[in-house]
Write a structure and sequence with these properties.
Length: 482
């Protein structure tokens, strides 16, 4: 068992109680034993990992280490990383070893963090269960019959199973927060534009943001400090002064106004989720926070708006996979047209094809106004709802998902039901807001349940501070699967 939080791992390295090579080896050994059942990691390369660890040890010996030097981390397969297969869990990119590295990964490599491996995900980040991966489903370490959530299910599973102190995920419609909830860990999606999208395989570019996943909010803050940077290579990267996301960790909850949106506390939630929310409300009250009722009236419209817009963006983003430049190319074809169509028919799985077809349809002449433009207007209305709510509160407390993790196969053949389960995460991405999931209880079947804290633009430090305070007064985040 390698139970370290990121902070503990960093302290062990700094006090020289363990070397980076020893620590990486400890994790690699645990991965050998436990990963085959979970399928959280899909690419491992011990030589590369140990070479990075060796370099970290040299840096520590020379006295120019940073706080994170030598700390191991796992990367979702969506991040391009030089010398590593970067497949986005798709057959289309199964043969793609990236010639360059995503900015967020490079920022962590610059700190001296050590890559443990690449984690499983839904193909091209489209899904909520991790079952659309070309490399097979990831299993939830709390119960191997359950899904870990998605699309960053592999990252959530390896952190929950203590096979990495932390991992990176990406969140287009909830893919950091929902798997964090289903696996009992903490994860944050930052304000759109805070972290660079350069080198992160594009799904829906106006939504996609990377973020940290770890056991604690404190660890997420430490990682976000290292990840966030202005990046001229990403046209939507925001040029802002570097923030210290740990700055509010010790700020008490007294006086903090927490909004409870009435649309999020309805009968659609399982009893276990209601209990987890109530646990959190009780704790917040006991710590002196003030609870206020707010309303997000367009909540239901966020699902159709998201699935129109995300599919539209996906259909254009994925047009680049044509068998010409990189990735899969069909072996059999007559002419060029057939090369394209055979390549795409073979390379993409059915969920990806479904999105491309929906996206192409809503962007086509005659339907553009009815669907795409309408959805853009709804997007604005959803964003406006949040501004009205934030006039009355500092942060919003919400469920992350209506239920605990479903069983494998339960949602896989019912795409509409799967889309509906994203109800509580998607509005945040439509608005571009930051939000965090933290563990808040367990279901009757002993599956973890998380809740969300949503903040206004650039309130990551406030969110992380409130989450850290909750974790100082509770122990849900300390539980690990057997
Ligand atoms: N479940 C959502 C989807 O399939 C969200 C995915 C994500 O955030 N990458 O689009």
């Amino acid at each position: 068992m390698t139970p370290y939080t990121l902070k503990q791992a960093a302290e062990l390295l700094q006090s020289k109680k363990i070397s980076a090579v020893e620590l990486a080896t400890e994790y690699l050994n645990a991965i050998d034993v436990r990963n085959p059942a979970i399928n959280g990691y899909i690419t491992l390369d011990k030589e590369l990992t140990l070479a990075e660890a060796q370099a970290a040890d040299e840096r520590i010996a020379q006295g120019n280490a940073s706080a994170l030097t030598g700390v191991p981390i796992a990367y979702k397969d969506i991040f391009c990383q030089q010398n590593w297969r970067s497949a986005c869990s798709s057959k289309m990119l199964d043969n793609f070893v990236s010639p360059y590295t995503a900015t967020v990964v490079q920022n962590l490599l610059n700190e001296g963090m050590v890559t443990l491996g690449r984690t499983n995900m839904d193909e091209f980040a489209m899904g909520s269960t991790n079952e659309t991966s070309f490399y097979g489903a990831t299993k939830n370490p709390w119960n191997l019959d359950n899904v870990p959530g998605g699309s960053s299910g592999g990252s959530a599973a390896v952190v929950a199973a203590r096979l990495a102190p932390a991992a990176l995920g990406s969140d287009t419609g909830g893919s950091i927060r929902q798997p964090a909830s289903h696996c009992g860990i903490t994860g944050i999606k930052p304000t759109y534009g805070t972290v660079s999208r350069f080198g992160m395989v594009a799904y829906a570019s106006s939504f996609d943001q990377a973020g940290p996943m770890a056991q604690t909010a404190e660890d997420c803050a430490l990682l976000l400090n290292a990840m966030a940077s202005f990046d001229p290579k990403d046209s939507t990267s925001l040029e802002r002064e570097q923030e210290d996301y740990t700055r509010d960790l010790n700020r008490p909850l007294t006086g903090l106004k927490i909004g409870l949106p009435k649309e999020y506390f309805g009968s659609g939630n399982s009893a276990d989720v209601q209990t987890a929310l109530q646990n959190t409300i009780n704790l917040l009250k006991a710590q002196g926070a003030e609870l206020v009722d707010v309303s997000l009236p367009q909540t239901e419209l966020s699902i159709p708006a998201y699935y129109v817009l995300a599919s539209a963006e996906a259909s254009t983003n994925l047009s680049r996979y044509d068998g010409v430049r990189y990735g899969h190319r069909a072996a059999q074809f007559g002419d060029l047209e057939e090369m394209y169509s055979n390549t795409r028919a073979e390379g993409f799985g059915s969920e990806v094809k479904r999105r491309i077809m929906i996206g192409t349809y809503v962007l086509s002449h005659g339907y553009y106004d009815a669907y795409y433009l309408k959805a853009q207007k709804l997007r604005r209305m959803v964003a406006n709802d949040f501004q009205t709510a934030f006039a009355q509160c500092d942060l919003i407390l919400a469920p992350t998902a209506p239920t605990a993790a479903p069983k494998l196969g339960e949602l896989n053949n019912d795409p509409v039901q799967a889309y509906l389960s994203d109800i509580y995460t998607i509005a945040v991405n439509l608005a571009g807001l930051p939000a965090l999931t933290l563990p808040a209880g367990f279901s009757a079947e002993k599956m973890p349940i998380g809740v969300q804290l949503i903040g206004n633009y650039f309130s990551e430090a406030k969110i992380l501070g409130a989450a850290h305070q909750i974790q100082q007064h509770s122990d849900w985040h300390t539980h690990a699967p057997e």
